[in-house]
Specification:
The complex is a heterodimer of chains A (about 140) and B (about 500). Chain A has about 140 residues and is α+β, with helices and mostly antiparallel strands. Chain A is about 25% helix and about 45% strand. In chain A, strands 1, 2, 6, 7 and 8 form a five-stranded antiparallel beta sheet that branches. In chain B, helix 5 runs antiparallel to helix 12 (about 295-335), helix 6 (about 160-170) crosses helix 12 (about 295-335) and helix 11 runs antiparallel to helix 12 (about 295-335). Classes of the chains: A alpha+beta (about 140), B alpha+beta (about 500).
Chain lengths: ~140, ~500
């Protein structure tokens, strides 16, 4: 599946204590890619100078499409913290509303520069309008 | 009555919709949202706040979130928001809710991702005058000796079998290994070892994520701070706690690190999947819960208690490192650090309240048992359980003690800090990290923090006024002020 970056966007919205992500894409899979990229950039506190090393496969399965987005982002957090490697580039190999298989490339770090504990279900929205998708996710930081 | 504003993102002053306008003032320190405010509420909401704090609390989604909590099955009495409450996810930060053990729920989101995030206070043998010329090397040595930062591992090494014992036995295991004294165990909430802990309920992912982090601070608002006692409000209580004006203290604020984060992630997911089977329907999916008396509820409670034991042990391991630093700097005789108390502020505890066993969820709230409660440590019977309220970076922290009166008012609970008043983005717009560092250094506070971004996000202006928060708690009778501590040096993640 080929990504279409020009149709993807994200922005961070003010929240008193946590951080809130709004993200848009042309498909559910694109939404996961863009949200994952946004999370990677958040953890790195900005864009990396270069993405190094071979791609690795990340896989998640969930009960529904909303949970899939949360579980996907939590898998990225887990990998980043346990392997000191922050994924920021993703190519979707397989996707359904409840399953993702993604080849990820990222940045090795001595420690993750910015702390994110979890992606939450609070205020979670995954919506489709006129063939494009939009989501809101709040992270505990 | 003023016209009720619409609840929209474009109207950020009132993100809880009309709820602020349905509340009534019950006392100078408490507002009530009646159970009639929304048809799905089972109990009223009590917000502990004066006019100024009420104005701040009613601005974001705090009220909406605590009203959502008031709808949960088996909730008893009232849902409470403490004076430092602010918008979080699921429960608000500063939220307290008690659920009947016999027919109520347990909610991982009601505890939070940083299970048993908490505070520990150590008192030195020496006063400020004796160490002021040695503070800089002491703070630098603390920064070297205690790892900080996201995912940062520990200087300590434990086997997988050790980790299971830490999860099951908490600080008792550390005492066996020489990292805690038997005296320490007497002044930690629950003795630093919750007996309901079930290491087998903690996933391998959780152990992998946080198992190597014991003895480290982490990042965000976590810190180790060297302070001095600046003011005593209650001489008798201060004397009983062993605090005196001018005394050096060390305050440790951290939790269960990645292990606790993953336990919460695992169980929010697990409970989300079984709620429908239990007939539970929620206004917010992050409130995912299960009946306490269900296999899922019991398993989470066992895992949460295990993560809490890990957090107590984390603060204990940091205590061990801090003691080494002080002994190196001041010698065996003057370098001692006595544990005053260690208290959790993200936890669900099974407690007897009247004729009922209740599972009291405190998320960003501190237990505050009074002088006559049997769980108040023997050394503090007649005084009250110490309550430790860290201020924002660079501002005062407080030592209070719980009251018997507070047990009936708020399930023996009080605030946990100053409470955020401003988003991280907004805080960074007000002042850059290097400016925050300079401001602190201009006040004579030594700062050891690698990340300028973290400093900007945690700047004092991002928080409510801790003096006001503590005054409300004191006036309301939830806890009683004993001493004020001011920072001299801070080590941050």
């Amino acid at each position: 599946m080929n990504p279409v970056p020009c149709e993807r966007w994200h922005r961070w919205v003010d929240h008193t204590s946590e951080v809130q992500l709004e993200v848009g894409a042309e498909s559910l899979a694109g939404l996961a890619v863009e949200a994952g990229r946004a999370l990677g950039l958040l953890m790195l506190r900005g864009a990396p100078e270069e993405v190094a090393g071979p791609a690795r496969i990340l896989e998640v399965s969930s009960v529904d499409r909303d949970a899939l987005l949360v579980d996907w982002l939590n898998e990225i957090l887990f990998v980043a913290e346990t392997e000191s490697w922050v994924p920021v580039e993703f190519t979707v190999e397989e996707s359904s509303p409840t399953r993702l298989r993604v080849a990820a490339r990222g940045v090795p770090v001595e420690e993750v520069p910015s702390s994110v504990k979890a992606a939450t279900f609070h205020g979670l929205k995954v919506e489709e309008h006129d063939g494009s998708f939009r989501a809101e996710v709040i992270f505990d930081v | 009555m003023s016209p009720i504003p619409k609840s929209t993102p474009e109207n950020p002053e009132f993100r809880s919709g009309n709820l602020p306008f349905l509340a009534k003032r019950v006392s100078p320190t408490m507002m009530e949202v009646p159970a009639s405010a929304r048809s799905d509420m089972r109990v009223p909401v009590h917000v502990w706040a004066d006019e100024e704090l009420w104005r701040q609390i009613s601005r974001d989604r705090t009220l909406l979130q605590i009203v959502n909590v008031a709808t949960l099955p088996g909730i008893a009495g009232a849902a409470h928001a403490m004076p430092d409450a602010h918008e979080g996810y699921g429960f608000p930060v500063g939220g307290v809710a008690a659920f009947r053990a016999r027919d109520g729920i347990i909610s991982p989101g009601g505890v939070g991702y940083d299970i048993n995030c908490g505070v520990r206070l150590l008192a030195a043998e020496v006063g400020h005058g004796q160490v002021k010329n040695r503070l800089e090397p002491i703070v630098s040595d603390l920064a070297r000796s205690i790892p900080s930062g996201t995912g940062k591992g520990s200087h300590l090494r434990f086997t997988n079998a050790d980790l299971d014992r830490i999860l099951g036995e908490g600080c008792s295991f550390l005492a066996e290994r020489g990292l805690a004294t038997r005296e320490d165990l007497k002044t930690i909430e629950g003795g630093g070892a919750l007996p309901a802990a079930d290491p087998g309920a903690v996933s391998e992912k959780a152990k992998q994520r946080g198992g190597g982090q014991l003895g480290s601070i982490g990042s965000g608002n976590h810190f180790v701070e060297v302070q001095k006692v600046d003011r005593i409000f209650d001489e008798a209580a201060a004397d009983a706690l062993g605090l005196w004006k001018g005394q050096i203290t060390v305050l440790i604020h951290t939790g269960s690190r990645g292990l606790g984060h993953q336990v919460c992630t695992d169980y929010v997911r697990a409970m989300d999947a079984v709620m429908a089977r239990h007939g539970i329907h929620l206004p917010d999916r992050e409130l995912a819960c299960a009946p306490f008396d269900s296999p899922e509820g019991k398993k989470y409670f066992g895992a949460m208690c295990a993560a809490a034991n890990f957090a107590f042990s984390n603060r204990q391991a940091i205590t061990y490192a801090a003691r080494e630093v002080f002994r190196r700097a001041l010698g065996e005789e003057d370098g001692g650090l006595r544990l005053i108390y260690d208290v959790a502020h993200n936890m669900a505890k099974l407690e007897r309240h009247g004729a009922e066993d209740l599972l009291v969820h405190r998320k960003g709230a501190t237990r505050a048992f009074g002088p006559s409660h049997p769980e108040t440590p023997a050394a503090y019977q007649g005084i009250g359980q110490p309550v430790l309220i860290p201020g924002s970076m660079g501002t005062a922290s407080y030592v209070l003690v719980g009251t018997d009166e507070g047990f009936g008012l708020s399930f023996g609970s009080t605030c946990h800090g100053a409470g955020r008043a401003m988003s991280r983005t907004a805080a960074k717009k007000v002042q850059k990290g290097n400016e925050v560092r300079k401001d602190l250094e201009d006040k004579g506070i030594i700062v050891r923090c690698a990340s300028a971004g973290e400093l900007a996000e945690e700047a004092p202006h991002a928080y409510k006024d801790v003096d006001r928060v503590v005054d409300v708690v004191h006036q309301a009778g939830l806890a009683r002020k004993v001493a004020r501590l001011v920072p001299l040096g801070v080590v941050k993640g």
